[in-house]
Amino acid sequence: MKYLSVFFIVTILIFASQNLFAQNLNAGDGIRISFLDINDLITGDYYIQPNGLVNLPIIGAIDTKNKDFNRLKLEIESRYDSLYKDPHLSVNALFRINILGEVRNPGFYYVSDYEKFAAILAFAGGTNENADLDNITLIRNNQQIDIDINKIIKVGSTANEFGLQSGDQVFVPRDWWVSNSSWITIVASAVALIVTSYAIFFQH
Question: What are the structural domains, with CATH classification, of the chain?
Answer without folding.
Answer: 2-93 (3.30.1950.10)
